[in-house]
Write a structure and sequence with these properties.
By secondary structure, the chain is an alpha/beta fold. It is built from 14 helices and 22 strands. It is 31% helix and 23% strand. Strands 1, 2, 3, 4, 5, 6 and 17 form a 7-stranded mixed sheet that branches. A 5-stranded parallel sheet has the order 8-15-9-10-11. The protein binds flavin-adenine dinucleotide and NADPH dihydro-nicotinamide-adenine-dinucleotide phosphate (NDP). Flavin-adenine dinucleotide binds next to helix 2, helix 3, helix 4, strand 4 and helix 10. Disulfide bonds join 68-73.
């Protein structure tokens, strides 16, 4: 069958593609766009990438590579690591290292090292595109029609025609609405990694990944840090795990303004930022919606960072000229299982596509698979189920599969079994570190071999641990597989395969001994 179809398809393809300079034009040179472009080029296609970074309201701007490389995963993980090193220095004294009493980090050195690394990645991406004969245009793209893209830079304009267009334009941080002074005086994750000077006393507003991770590394770097959360932390995560993450941040010195909503930000005469907020009334969950206390709270900070979610930049793209439909609420591009939009030949991948997890490996994989389907005869679709993720707070939270809440709602409590344990990482013993929040939860079916539905791991190196166990989940592992796996001693990951206490038993899940 494939033999009959392919010659026909390639003749047809050749005739059609003569009308276009490119077989594929990707708008957006971030994780998804670059992966898609490089993969298409591997198959001998004529490929172009258009990438343009609109400066943040505070003027931050960066190079090729998108969010992950410039203002996301990469600088964030390095800041997180820098903060963990601080904790490591404190531990080192317990292990006998003779170190100065006060170890301090120099923000400008740290930030400049990070910038150097990011710039080397920007350069690396440009070289890779060149090596693969992918044409790079540092222009802002928009549609003239479904095959014609207009690129604009400060001084030039180009018109490119492509048979297939992939939208991979990502998202940008939101500012809160109706908070006077928010844009004028606040920064976002687009700015924090590019600050030349320490942000000093910082208020981080939000309860998602970005807020918690940022509060975690700022505190770990020794800064006075406050987190303002209007509802819960880490919505969508297992809430028992999320609440342990909050407790651990509190214990590390992050101050919480829980149930609070910012009202305004003003600059004081001394040049500091005066933030005013109101607090939610102490009422039940259902009543919570708009019950706010009359009294306002106020405090001064040096920096206010908004981490209140991300928004699309699709308005710039003139999508209506290609007939590409978006979700009116989210602004994200509506796509089918094959990533095709409402306009045949136009596709969307990564953060901008509706309903996709906003994660780098997801964007990369979706981009590669799309190029393989378009140009290499593949039929493999991206599988968006059981995508693992890790929140890089000082105590990391790794998660894959169903939360306890979701499993209970989907299957009923009688049909699931939850195995759990509080454990103490061996490394914590010498410095006598608090391990109260090191917790593991595995959600399984209750019957038969007890197929695993979800794994949640809170502790050091959760990203590394969860990556391995995500494979097990993908392979359909059960609790009995977990039990029959040999451990690696002494590690934190082995605590997962040693789990034996069920929540249902009501027994103390604290691991004792070796
Ligand atoms: P992006 O990487 O955002 O790339 C889009 C590109 O398109 C950008 O360069 C943009 O400037 C450009 N563009 C936009 N409009 C146009 C236009 N009209 N013309 C030309 N170019 C345009 N994910 C993880 O998996 N792990 C993490 O640890 C992690 N940490 C994160 C930390 C932070 C602070 C943030 C904000 C995100 C983090 N993420 C993390 C999420 C991850 O960065 C994104 O999911 C990923 O970068 C999305 O890739 P993308 O290709 O969809 O878009
Ligand atoms: P999220 O959507 O995860 O969180 C936004 C937070 O802001 C929520 O707590 C929300 O509260 C709160 N919020 C929204 N509006 C307001 C407001 N007006 N005032 C106060 N609080 C408000 O967004 P993030 O930017 O944190 O993360 C975006 C995505 O980026 C993540 O979903 C993740 O996929 C990706 N990411 C991944 C990381 C990783 O892999 N380690 C790290 C960072 C980001 P409420 O719940 O009440 O709506």
């Amino acid at each position: 069958m494939a033999r009959l179809v392919r010659p026909f398809r390639s003749r047809w393809y050749h005739r059609v593609s003569e009308k276009y300079e490119y077989d594929l034009l990707v708008i957006g040179g971030g994780s998804g766009g670059l992966a898609c472009a490089k993969e298409a080029a591997q198959h001998g296609k004529r490929v172009a990438v258009m990438d343009y970074v609109k400066p943040s309201p505070q003027g931050s701007v960066w190079g090729l590579g998108g969010t992950c490389v410039n203002v996301g995963c990469v600088p964030k993980k390095l800041m997180h690591h820098a903060a963990l090193l601080g904790a490591g220095v404190r531990d080192a004294r317990s292990y006998g290292w003779d170190l100065p009493a006060e170890a301090k980090v120099d923000w400008s050195t740290l930030a400049s090292k990070l910038r150097d690394h990011v710039r080397s990645l920007n350069w690396g991406h440009r070289v890779q595109l060149q090596d693969k004969h992918v044409k790079y245009f540092n222009f802002r793209g928009s549609f003239l029609d479904k095959h014609t893209i207009r690129g604009v830079s400060s001084s030039k304009e180009v018109l490119l025609r492509a048979e297939n267009v992939v939208l991979a334009v990502g998202l940008r941080p939101k500012y809160p609405e109706n908070v006077p002074g928010a844009v004028e005086h606040g920064i976002t994750s687009d700015d924090i990694f590019w600050l030349q000077k320490s942000p000093e006393k910082t208020l981080v507003v939000g309860g998602g990944y970005v807020a918690l991770e940022t509060a975690g590394f700022l505190r770990g770097l020794g800064l006075d840090t406050t987190l303002m959360v209007r509802s819960c932390c880490l919505r969508g995560f297992d809430q028992e795990m999320a609440s342990l993450v909050s407790t651990s941040l509190r214990e590390k010195g992050v101050q919480f303004l829980s149930g609070c909503q910012p009202q305004r930000v003003q600059r004081s005469q001394e040049g500091r930022l005066q933030v005013t907020w109101r607090r939610r009334k102490d009422v039940s969950e259902e009543e919570q919606k708009d019950e706010w206390d009359e009294n306002e709270g106020q405090e001064e900070f040096d920096t206010v960072m908004w981490a209140v979610g991300r928004q699309t930049v699709t308005d710039d793209l003139q999508l209506e000229k290609a007939g590409v439909q978006t979700n009116a609420m989210t602004g994200k591009v509506l796509v089918g299982l094959d990533d095709q939009t409402s306009c045949p030949g136009v596709y969307a991948i990564g953060d901008v596509a509706e309903g996709r997890p906003e994660l780098t490996p997801v964007a990369i994989k979706a981009g590669r698979l799309l190029a393989q389907r378009l140009f290499a005869g593949s039929t493999t679709m991206m599988d968006y189920t059981n995508v693992p993720t890790t929140v890089f707070t000082p105590l990391e939270l790794g998660s894959v599969g169903l939360t306890e809440e979701k499993a209970t709602a989907l299957l009923s409590p009688d049909l699931i079994e939850v195995y759990h344990a509080y454990y103490k990482p061996l490394e914590y013993s010498v410095p006598n570190r608090n391990s109260n929040q090191c917790y593991i939860k595995v959600v399984c079916e209750r019957e038969g071999k007890q197929r695993i539905l979800g794994i949640h791991f809170l502790g050091p190196n959760a990203g590394e641990v969860t990556q391995g166990f995500a494979l097990a989940l993908r392979c359909g592992a059960s609790y009995s597989d977990l039990k029959s796996t040999c451990g690696i001693h002494p590690t934190c990951a082995e605590e997962l395969i040693k789990l034996q206490i069920t929540k249902r038993s009501g027994k103390d899940p604290t691991v004792t001994g070796c």
